[in-house]
């Protein structure tokens, strides 16, 4: 017999669940829930604070901080619309009703994607039209073209002899311009005046209209006649000769993709280079610079003929990432010529596509996304899988049971700690329940579960957003789907009123080729008025087959960081069958309490027995 001490002074290796626990490193864990590695120690995560007192009237699917004239609001995308946090009350943002498509929000669980530009928010989700929001209203984005203007040739005036074509555009307070109206053509047999009847927009945010006219006998180009600075005047008399016309009309104003079509086709959006970029399943659409309701470019060729579809779009520094379910592409701005701004499309990955738009996140030049089989990362070149064996069981279970909920996976970045966080459905068929977290500065994984101490079911965010105040202090807000409240992550000690349960199940140790008897355990952790359960397992058995279990008080007298525990393989049995010697053993920490404790190390005392042959 040999007495052996195993000194675990480094607990910072993270989770590795895809290979047998005998084969992981000493500082790694088969299971790691609500503990995160920080340096060489484990730290229990902070809690969750409920921000609102009155919940929204439907589930939360997205969050955005809306900043306007010094005020800041948290806006939530809901299953059936939008709401904002009004002094702790999730207050519905009223829609502007009408007969137009998009006037009514149908129940749709698909997550919204939202961006702010100046004083407006733009939002879209699979199955819904592009929406424009403020804290006061939500309505269908895009300005429909005016109806054809009326035109009557009158007496003598300045409009040159010949044929002229007129058309009209609507303009909003933010400078967005509608597509042009149908043209009306008149003939002046002499220099004349022309009386026009100007259409009025039914859209309240239209504040002006522009009148355009072709030169005499030249119908190929419109020129600005005048701007009517209201949306009420209907009569205008044109007396200007061709030489006094203003700027030429820039053709190509398009409505947002799918607007006013029988079925909404857009899926996701982002802001890049002062343009709004929207995808449907087959193409990428770009707005004009600074005008997010006026579109002018369409890009195709994203492998849509292979049976795969576009799933995500995101800004990545000087690149725009466009994701299909099979491949990853990026767009770059390559210059400007007489035809406008030029963009090129390049392939980033030909095999590792993306299944969830909201999983695409960037941090410190890195790009992360969820492909279903793995999480991938690129620093600018060829991507690499960063999950592999480290959260393999979790991803395999999510794939086997809930691949239909992959598109609900939501990523976020903790900029303070350097974490990429991905919440997804692992056990639940109705919500995200597990967050897998990658420490990209130290290349290690761990997991979080929320609201799980008192219930079998856990929760993970359905939406996450970071907010930085004027002093650059960070607050992380989250929604948990069906809970319908707004929450602050990393705040307090509890998940609202639920104590946080943290579990760390470590490496399986085996001494030589013989058997071992576990003698005792010393653990270095925070002294607190709390209790911790320590369990001992043998030969890779399940959680239901622990051979010993001890509940220890963390405020021992005298107070000390090291606590010695008589967790012996020869002590009282948890199971009815005595088990003394074993080929391997594991130790598990199971802690539920109000204190965010730290575990700095463990010392395991083991008696090892060599197997020897007895002579015959």
Please, could you describe this protein's structure?
This protein is mainly β. 2% of the residues lie in helices and 47% in strands. The strands form 11 sheets. Strands 1, 3, 4, 41, 44 and 46 form a 6-stranded antiparallel sheet that branches. Mean pLDDT is 89; it is low at 98-103 and 571-579.
Précis, in short:
This protein is an all-beta fold. 2% of the residues lie in helices and 47% in strands. The strands form 11 sheets. Strands 1, 3, 4, 41, 44 and 46 form a 6-stranded antiparallel β-sheet that branches. A 5-stranded antiparallel β-sheet has the order 2-40-45-42-43, with no helix packed on it.
Features:
single chain; 616 residues; mainly beta; six-stranded antiparallel beta sheet; five-stranded antiparallel beta sheet; 46 strands; elongated
SSE blueprint and pairings:
Elements: E1 2-8, E2 29-33, E3 35-38, E4 41-44, E5 48-50, E6 60-68, E7 71-78, E8 81-86, E9 89-92, E10 113-117, E11 120-124, E12 131-133, E13 138-140, E14 150-159, E15 162-172, E16 184-188, E17 192-197, E18 206-215, E19 218-228, E20 235-238, E21 268-272, E22 275-279, E23 284-288, E24 291-299, E25 310-316, E26 319-324, E27 328-337, E28 340-349, E29 361-363, E30 366-370, E31 375-378, E32 384-385, H1 392-402, E33 410-414, E34 419-424, E35 434-439, E36 444-448, E37 463-468, E38 474-479, E39 486-489, E40 500-506, E41 515-525, E42 531-538, E43 548-553, E44 562-565, E45 585-593, E46 598-609
Antiparallel strand pairs: 1-46, 2-40, 3-4, 4-46, 5-39, 6-7, 7-8, 8-9, 10-11, 11-12, 12-13, 14-17, 15-16, 15-18, 17-20, 18-19, 21-22, 22-23, 23-24, 25-26, 26-27, 27-28, 29-30, 30-31, 31-32, 33-34, 34-35, 35-36, 37-38, 38-39, 40-45, 41-44, 41-46, 42-43, 42-45
């Amino acid at each position: 017999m040999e007495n052996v001490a195993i000194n675990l002074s480094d607990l910072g290796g993270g989770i590795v669940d895809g290979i047998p626990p005998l084969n992981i490193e000493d500082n790694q864990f088969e299971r790691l829930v609500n503990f995160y590695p920080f340096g060489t120690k484990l730290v229990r995560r902070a809690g969750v604070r409920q921000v609102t007192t009155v919940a929204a009237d439907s589930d939360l699917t997205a969050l955005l901080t809306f900043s306007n004239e010094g005020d800041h609001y948290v806006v939530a995308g809901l299953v059936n619309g939008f709401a904002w946090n009004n002094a702790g009350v999730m207050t519905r943002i009223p829609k502007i009703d009408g007969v137009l498509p998009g006037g009514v929000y149908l129940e749709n669980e698909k997550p919204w994607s939202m961006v702010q530009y100046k004083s407006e928010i733009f939002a879209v989700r699979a199955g819904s039209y592009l929406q424009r929001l403020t804290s006061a209203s939500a309505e269908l984005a895009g300005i429909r073209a005016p109806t054809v203007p009326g035109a009557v040739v009158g007496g003598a005036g300045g409009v040159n002899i010949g044929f002229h074509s007129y058309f009209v555009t609507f303009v909003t307070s933010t400078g967005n311009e509608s597509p042009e109206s149908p043209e009306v053509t008149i003939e002046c047999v002499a220099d004349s005046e022309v009386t026009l009847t100007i259409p009025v927009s039914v859209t309240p945010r239209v504040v002006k209209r522009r009148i355009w006219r072709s030169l005499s006998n030249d119908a190929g180009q419109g020129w600005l006649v005048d701007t009517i600075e209201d949306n009420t005047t209907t009569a205008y008399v044109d007396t200007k000769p061709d030489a006094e016309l203003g700027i030429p009309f820039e053709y190509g104003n398009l409505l947002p993709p799918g607007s006013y079509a029988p079925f909404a086709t857009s899926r996701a959006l982002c802001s890049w280079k002062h343009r709004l970029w929207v995808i449907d399943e087959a193409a990428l659409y770009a707005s004009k610079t600074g005008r997010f309701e006026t579109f002018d470019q369409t890009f195709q060729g994203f492998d849509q003929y292979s049976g795969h579809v576009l799933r995500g779009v995101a800004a990545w520094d000087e690149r725009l990432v466009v994701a299909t379910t099979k491949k990853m592409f990026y767009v770059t701005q390559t210059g400007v010529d007489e035809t406008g701004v030029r963009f090129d499309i390049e392939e980033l990955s030909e095999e590792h596509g993306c299944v969830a738009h909201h999983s695409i996140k960037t941090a410190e030049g890195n790009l992360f996304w969820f492909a279903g089989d793995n999480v991938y990362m690129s620093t600018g070149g060829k991507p690499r899988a960063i999950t592999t064996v480290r959260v393999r069981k979790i991803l395999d279970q999510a794939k086997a049971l809930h691949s239909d909920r992959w598109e609900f996976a939501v990523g976020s970045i903790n900029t303070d700690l350097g974490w990429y966080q991905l919440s997804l459905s692992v056990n639940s068929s109705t919500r995200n329940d597990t967050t897998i977290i990658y420490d990209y500065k130290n290349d290690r994984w761990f997991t979080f579960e929320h609201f799980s101490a008192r219930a079998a079911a856990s929760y993970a965010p359905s939406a996450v957003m970071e907010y930085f105040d004027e002093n650059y202090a960070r607050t992380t807000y989250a929604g948990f789907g069906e809970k319908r409240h707004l929450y602050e992550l990393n705040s307090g000690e509890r998940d609202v009123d639920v104590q946080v349960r943290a579990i760390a199940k470590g490496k399986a140790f085996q001494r030589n080729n013989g058997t071992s008897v576990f003698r005792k355990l010393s653990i270095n952790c925070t002294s607190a008025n709390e209790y911790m359960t320590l369990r001992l397992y043998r030969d890779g058995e399940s959680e239901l087959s622990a051979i010993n279990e001890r509940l220890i008080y963390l405020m021992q007298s005298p107070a000390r960081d090291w606590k010695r525990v008589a967790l012996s393989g020869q002590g009282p049995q948890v199971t009815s069958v005595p088990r003394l010697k074993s080929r391997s053993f594991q130790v598990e920490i199971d802690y539920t309490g109000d204190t965010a404790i730290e575990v700095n190390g463990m010392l395991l005392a083991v008696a090892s027995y060599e197997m020897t042959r007895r002579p015959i």
